[in-house]
Amino acid sequence: MKFFNHFTFLLLVLGGLNWLFFALDFNVVDTVFGFSDVAVSIVYWLVGLSALYQLWYRFFSTDK
């Protein structure tokens, strides 16, 4: 479970950095995975689900 926690945290940080670059008019996810709309959607879903997991882990989990 520790690996999953670190992996979701890493996805969350990368998603936050993507938002920073998006504010600077450069979308990293579209640049890397722009060849496929499905791949872009999967990346955004993974980042969003990682955020939900991290919220649950930080506030409701007893497995810390």
How much of the sequence is in beta strands?
under 5%
Would you tell me the structural class of the helices and strands?
mainly alpha
Mean pLDDT: 91
- Describe the global form: elongated
Please mark out the parts with pLDDT under 50 across 5 or more consecutive residues, or reply none: none
What is the chain-wise order of helices and strands? HHH
Domain module tally: 1
Protein name: DUF378 domain-containing protein
Keywords: Membrane, Transmembrane, Transmembrane helix
Transmembrane segments: 33-56
Pfam families: DUF378
Give a quick set of tags describing it:
single chain, mainly alpha, 3 helices, transmembrane helix
Describe this structure in words.
The chain is elongated, with a radius of gyration of 13 Å. It has three helices and no strands. It has one domain. Helix content is 80%, strand content 0%. The chain has helices at residues 2-23, 28-33, 37-59. Keywords: Membrane, Transmembrane, Transmembrane helix.
Would you summarize the structure shown here?
This protein is mainly alpha-helical and 64 residues long. It has helices at 2-23, 28-33, 37-59.
In terms of topology, how is this protein built?
Elements: H1 2-23, H2 28-33, H3 37-59
Helix pairs in contact: 1-3
